[in-house]
Amino acid sequence: MSGHDEQHDDPHGYGHDEPEVAVKIGIMFICVTAAIYLISLF
Question: Which residue, 1, 8, 14, 23, has most beta carbons within 10 Å?
Fold first, then answer.
């Protein structure tokens, strides 16, 4: 539970890194999906 409290106490420490990771994963997912889609066309 202490880890959950730390997230609220330090929004700039952990809360700022999480969106960046989510964006990177989202971009990678879109790139992979687009690649598979293009490959399936050919």
Answer: 14
